[in-house]
């Protein structure tokens, strides 16, 4: 009778029956952290099943391809030694980097559309700025190096590094270094330096990344990578377990001896409900309370306490056909050089990476913990870019209207999951680490350390090597 029931259940496709001793580890999220987790687990002889709601692996690292070139919607710059694991992955997948030299810099007013060349710094600024960069790098190498090499905050965060970036810079008597932090945080979606704790930005602005970003500002050659293709090749080469894309998870039930994931395909017009029994679950996406609830996770009170304060930024990236010159960089102006632009959802950076492509990539960001929607950000993108869509060097050129057909991709991200100053001071990362393994559930994403491809890879490695 049991055999008949099993056959009926399998025929209906309700769930995959597994030997409890051979159940796979189920990974939710096929970005850098999820793919690394799957590959590391399989190296240990564990079976894996990976789920993702997108139709391609890579998480936030997606790209638009045209005429042999790529326009990234996510990560692009990498430098040694900070990106040590990323570089290993690039080498293993046989991907070549692409040189990029930043061209002329322009600023624009998002309201009026006025465009003007970025002005030279005032007299005396550059020597003072480079002096502060040197002092910062010396301090980083001496006092922060060990904090950066770890893949997590398991051993705590020094109290002086839990304050906001603005407060830390002021306490350490930096008077112009703020410019580097502001420009970096705005361009790459890391928010307002008056809100974001310094510990996070110290993970990003390592000495080598700092120097690479200065090269971009100075128009010196740097190298960029097609991280979407890198991750796609990595998945094909290193993971044998199934990866279910375009998949919606309805529930993650942890009430029994083994977690059970109920899911269906988004590609089916009449989707069948399926279920997968798991030996453990690794959640490889930003663990905000809303995202965990959306995945149907039956949260404990401890989990609610830890994840309720996790905040993200509304961050949008786009690939748009434009008539602006190659390598010319446009940045949104702010009301003061020491302040970021207002987070209204307008594009804050626009640049063409490839001389053979008429595609510009853009970054837009909204208010922290705000409710800006993709539907609201999209027309703001079109409106602002329509004012910029010309060659500003030609005083007679007229901006050309951006149409829906020009916007080849517009990606919304729950970006940069992190705690605020209050939670860091209260030791919330210790509480987070204590949750690892609870009810056979583990967490691996940029949240473990910092929202960056490199740290997402390290998070996947760390979770597997520590707990499996």
TrEMBL record:
Upper classification of the organism: Eukaryota, Fungi, Dikarya, Ascomycota, Pezizomycotina
SUPFAM superfamilies in the cross-refs: FAD/NAD(P)-binding domain
InterPro entries (UniProt xref): FAD/NAD-bd_sf
Chain segments annotated as transmembrane: none
Pfam families (UniProt xref): NAD_binding_8
Name the record gives this protein: FAD/NAD(P)-binding domain-containing protein
Gene3D superfamilies according to UniProt: 1.10.405.20, 3.30.70.1990, FAD/NAD(P)-binding domain
